[in-house]
Amino acid sequence: MKTAARPENESERLAALHEYRILGTRPEQSYDDITTIASETCRTPIALLSLVDADRQWFKSRVGLDVEETPRDWSFCAHAILSAEPLIVPDAHRDERFKDNPLVSGDPGIRLYAGFPLQNDADHRIGTLCVIDRRPGDLDPAQCKVMEALARQAVTFLELRKRSIRLLESVCQMESKGGMISTCSYCRKAKDEKGHWLHLDQYLSQHTTLSFSHGICDACMETHFPEVIELWQQEGHRSN
């Protein structure tokens, strides 16, 4: 069995993985949907969303496999993250890298492996979306295209998770004494330490790392700009 080399950016890659704070978390439908679609599309009994940690691969989502993790030294995915291109092994029994691997000689008896790296915008490959079969095989171009799209979607979910965590931390780390904000019950402005009343977005911009963009919600549009609503409705009728 050939153990995968460590990526050149391994320390940065691990730091990026840990920023998502997802290792050891409970199953989530959004990720389970991805592995289900992968399994159905590729017609394989096993599909995994695998995250490669320092010494293990841990499965955020899995179809057709009971274990939650395996040693990194056994991991096909540890090989797959060495390149941005998919790693497809049609028959692991005939591949020198894997023929003696415990996951090949024992359960689950891997023959076909197809792993698609989970790569973020900083080129950190933190794991893979992979499908596995107990029989030799391959993926056709259409299946590969779907798998690449699903891998991108998984990374999008991870990035949204990281942003949500950062947003929560920014709010929790506000410098306001006692973590409390004094707000006006009527206009919803917030009072700062000098007694000045500020719009809430101004207050949060000064006390957190948050930034804001602005728009107009539907209710305010109807209240303050009824003529715009009327114009939109007229344009809609004309186009119909």
Characterization of this structure:
26% of the residues are buried. The protein contains 8 helices and 9 strands. The chain is an alpha+beta fold. The strands form 2 sheets. A 6-stranded antiparallel beta sheet has the order 3-2-1-6-5-4. The chain has a 3-stranded antiparallel beta sheet with strand order 7-8-9. It is elongated and about 70 Å long. The chain has helices at 10-19, 29-42, 76-80, 102-105, 141-172, 200-207, 218-224, 226-239; strands spanning 46-52, 56-63, 69-71, 87-89, 112-119, 125-133, 182-183, 190-191, 197-198.
SSE arrangement:
Layout: H1 10-19, H2 29-42, E1 46-52, E2 56-63, E3 69-71, H3 76-80, E4 87-89, H4 102-105, E5 112-119, E6 125-133, H5 141-172, E7 182-183, E8 190-191, E9 197-198, H6 200-207, H7 218-224, H8 226-239
Antiparallel strand pairs: 1-2, 1-6, 2-3, 4-5, 5-6, 7-8, 8-9
Helix pairs in contact: 2-5
Output the helix-strand order.
HHEEEHEHEEHEEEHHH
Mean pLDDT: 88
* pLDDT < 50 stretches: none
Strand order of the largest sheet: 3-2-1-6-5-4
Radius of gyration (Å)? 25 Å
- Main sheet summary: 6 strands, antiparallel
Distance between the termini: 66 Å
How many beta-strand runs? 9
Beta fraction? 15-25%
Quick recap of the structure?
By secondary structure, the chain is an alpha+beta fold. It has helices spanning 10-19, 29-42, 76-80, 102-105, 141-172, 200-207, 218-224, 226-239; strands at residues 46-52, 56-63, 69-71, 87-89, 112-119, 125-133, 182-183, 190-191, 197-198.
